[in-house]
Amino acid sequence: VPSTCDWRKKPGIISSVRNQVTCGCCWAMAAVGNIEALWAIKYQKFVELSVQELLDCDRCANGCAGGFVWDAFLTVLNNSGLASEKDYPYQGKAEVHKCQAKRYKKVAWIQDFIMLPENEQSIARHLATEGPITVTINKELLQVYQNNVIQPAPGTCDPRQVDHVVLLVGFGKTKSVESRQAEADLSQSKPRPRRRSIPYWILKNSWGANWGEEGYFRLHRGSNACGITKYPWTALVDAPAKKRHAVSCPP
Amino acid sequence: QGIRGQEPGPRPLELREAFTLFQIQYNRTYSNPAEYARRLEIFARNLARAQRLQEEDLGTAQFGVTPFSDLTEEEFDQLYGNRKAAGRAPNMDRKVGSGERGKS
Q1: Catalytic: which of A25, A157, A164, A249?
Q2: CB-facing half-sphere around the CA of B99: CA atoms within 13 A
Q3: Which chain B residues contact residue A210 at CB under 8 A?
Q4: Separation of alpha carbons A167 and A46, rounded Å
Q5: pLDDT in tens, A196-206
Q6: At what angle do helices A69-78 and A26-43 cross, to 10 degrees?
Q7: Most exposed among A76, A228, B32, B68, judged by the fewest C-beta atoms under 10 Å?
């Protein structure tokens, strides 16, 4: 596992930050982001895929009222792929009885989908070697988040209460910083504290680029912060050997 | 108000200024004075919450005004949460043989 990985640094892998507006479709946006990235990594071809198709054609017909990322992948399998965003654009509302999957050409498809082990080291390895994955987290702290690395205090951001799906696109470590406790000690004239660096995950949200760090946020890595290890799901996209390219995650 | 004067956090005038800046930045208007007052109160509560989280956080995160600062936690949940995925997903977090004998 490399020490850092950021798929955003590789052009044509990660699509621009989407905005759900007032539709509870984080599950569909994260699933589409996952498939777009894997398709670009395996085929060296970027396609922007239709979130609306997942909303209209979801087998549980829940659309904007929330959903599971594995249902999104099942819908992609059942419909033999996904149309492009251009052909089947996002409307911000679901029309669950008006699935138009058959009307448009499929531009990407998946072979299967899997849940990764609930372990941050395995997640990092998969992310670095295969590509971005979806995770479900507790979004409690995100309403008032502005920037930098969230490391929740014990008792906040319950890892069992996950309610928001996002795309995990990388990981890294901050430069050495004084911890908040260390800063407090320093202000009370205690001996100079040790500096530390904070390991973090980089996550792509779907609340527009005006939120967080241009639509992204960073969460502490190594403590199951906000339940990040609870549901690590990814689609499987496999290109035929002759079309396969070796792409590694940029540090 | 006397006790409030000793509390940390923005004072009423600063709060109104911060709220005006928020309205300009995120293009927010409210239909009547009562709605404005309600959103200002929610905004103040969210600022206080951000300040508390800022103090508690063990990392380097900054919390404060965001595009969602005039929403209650419940409204935010309804608009942006994944109600269906909240908490436990049935049958998805139990491993086979996790102690429930006799059940598949």
Answers
A1: A164
A2: 1
A3: 26, 67
A4: 17
A5: 899 999 999 99
A6: 60
A7: B32
Please give the ipTM for the structure prediction.
0.89
A205, A211 contact by CB (below 8 A): yes
A148 contacts in chain B (CB < 8 Å): 59-62
Locate the chain A residue with the closest alpha carbon to B59: A151
Residues B27-61: tens digit of each pLDDT:
999 999 999 999 999 999 999 999 999 999 999 99
pLDDT at B19 over 90: yes
Give the span between the Cα atoms of A212 and A8, in whole angstroms.
Answer: 16
pLDDT at position B72: 96
Q: Which of B60, B69, B83 to mutate to test the interface with A (most CBs of A within 10 A)?
A: B60
Chain A residues touching residue B63 (CB < 8 angstroms): 141, 144-146
Establish whether A25 is a catalytic residue: no
Taking only the tens place, the pLDDT of each residue in A84-104 is 999 999 998 887 778 999 999
- Residue contacts between A and B (CB atoms, under 8 Å): 131
Look up residue A230 and give its two tokens: 């609870």
Write down the H helix ranges in B26-67: 33-56
Instruction: Return d(Cα A129, Cα A249) in angstroms, integer.
Output: 7
Structure confidence by residue, pLDDT tens digits, A32-48? 999 999 999 999 999 99
Please confirm, yes or no, whether A164 is among the known catalytic residues. yes
Considering Cα of B26, then A151, then A38, then A31, what sign does the dihedral take? negative
Tokens linked to A217 = 């946020």
Q: Tokens at residue B39, please?
A: 């959103």
CB atoms within 10 A of CB B83: 14
Residues pairing with A200 in the sheet: A172, A220
pLDDT at A111 > cutoff 60 = yes
Decide if B85 and A207 are in contact by the 8 Å CB cutoff. Answer: no
Q: Could A147 and B81 be called an inter-chain contact, meaning their C-beta atoms sit closer than 8 Å? A: no
